[in-house]
Design goal:
- By secondary structure, the chain is mainly alpha-helical.
- The protein has nine helices and no strands.
- It has helices spanning 9-24, 27-34, 49-55, 58-82, 91-102, 115-124, 129-145, 152-171, 176-210.
- α3 (49-55) packs antiparallel against α4 (58-82).
Amino acid sequence: MIGTGIPDISSLLLATTIAYIIGALPLADRLSRRRGIDIFKAGTGLAGASNVLRNVGKIPAMLVFIGDMAKGIVTVFIAQQLLGVEGPWIVVPAAAAVIGHWNSIFSRFKGGDGLVVLGGVTLLAFPDYAIGFTGVAVASIVALVAQKMPYSSLMNILIGYTVIIALSARFSPEDLNSALALGGLAVIVFGHAILGHARRRRSEVAADLASR
């Protein structure tokens, strides 16, 4: 790849394929099964750290969180450092990692909501790492403070990526397109999470009515 223009298509396709496989690694599913729990039938039915924390335990949840964050970090490292995918194009393998996490080929196309994977992507997505780290740190603080408020997930995503876009515009204008592209991916990830929770709630209500 030359500069931050269009990457070599073969490199982009390879980065995207590798990203999907990394994202699809079924950490929550495997760790939960070792404790005798099918995470897809417990709690929210999502293979993520929050559901593992509530239904499996603190240590498995911590391992899932670290592992899911690492999925995003490794995806970006391979795409940027080994395959030369840079700038806004990093959103392509990033999206593939999230899709892999949503629909894992290793767990019958089930998965989690992808928010932690996206956080890992964000940490390394910008040449100035301070931008990604600051955005994720702000989003994490907001998530802790506002966790009991309605739409807290939406709030921390919006605030986190607003900070990233503002920092990019002020201190690193060449990264602004990357910030906007990842912000768009964040909106898609959040929308997918909201729709998934709504479908599960409808299914639970229908099952409850059917059992009466």
